[in-house]
Amino acid sequence: MQIKSTAFLKSAVHPEHYPEGGMPEIAFAGRSNVGKSSMINCLLNRRALVRTSSTPGRTQLLNFFTINDAFNLVDLPGYGFAKVPLAVKRSWGPMIRTYLEKRRNLRGVVLILDIRRIPGEEDLQFLDWLEEYQIPTIAVITKADKVTRGQRREHVRKIAAACGLPEDAFTLFSATSREGRADVWERVAQALDS
Ligand code: GDP
Q1: Which family does it belong to (predicted)?
Q2: 33 CB within 6 A, ligand 1
């Protein structure tokens, strides 16, 4: 995908504040620190369009961007961030569920996992919601550069088993080496077209 333009649209919590226009939309989700911002910035060839989650404030909102004036990209707040106040943690689930349930133009969610980490309860819960609302899921394992080529298969096997998904459901990615970038775009473009 050739990126001609990217722009921040708005942040929102409630459906009445989501951007209008009905553009097809793709959302990115994952545990805090999984590498979500790095992946989005790499996909868009932008150094820092999306901020990293070391500052929790703005990262607790749904952040909407418009890409090529053709589709929206949504950066969903990362989960599992220990320093977030309890009240914010409690509101995270309803905010995400409402978004997944109500957003008619949502075409797919990129769920990001870390190659070195067995998926946790929150990752599995997110997968359950995607299934419940029948949202096409693009599962991506990032930080692939952190393990040797020889170890990769075993890491993918364990992650796939924990998720109850086949190994070929996952695309391997690295924001550092940029490997997997074309594959992720291909799956995103396919979801946007469907
Ligand atoms: P977020 O909280 O999910 O948005 O995660 P970030 O994108 O801020 O990344 C968290 C940390 O992981 C940062 O220190 C990144 O530099 C690092 N990181 C992200 N992606 C990769 C990757 O593909 N490979 C490596 N080696 N490090 C990465």
Answers
A1: Belongs to the TRAFAC class TrmE-Era-EngA-EngB-Septin-like GTPase superfamily. EngB GTPase family.
A2: yes
For 127-159, what is each residue's pLDDT tens digit?
999 999 999 999 999 999 999 999 999 999 999
Q: What is the Å distance from ligand 1's center to 34 Cα?
A: 6
Rounded to whole angstroms, how far apart are CA atoms 184 and 41?
A: 13
List the one residue out of 180, 88, 79, 87 whose CA is nearest residue 139: 180
Q: What is the pLDDT of residue 17?
A: 97
Q: Alpha helices of the chain — where are they, by DSSP H?
A: 36-43, 86-102, 121-132, 149-163, 181-193
Quote the CA–CA distance of 97 and 129 in Å, as a whole number: 7
Q: What is the CATH number of the domain that holds 86?
A: 3.40.50.300
Question: Distance from the CA of 36 to the center of ligand 1, in angstroms?
Answer: 7
Per the structure, how many domains does the chain have? 1
Query: Are the C-beta atoms of residues 109 and 80 closer than 8 Å to each other?
Result: no
Ligand 1 centroid, distance to 20 Cα (angstroms):
31
Give the range of the structural domain holding residue 84, as residue numbers without chain letter. Answer: 6-193
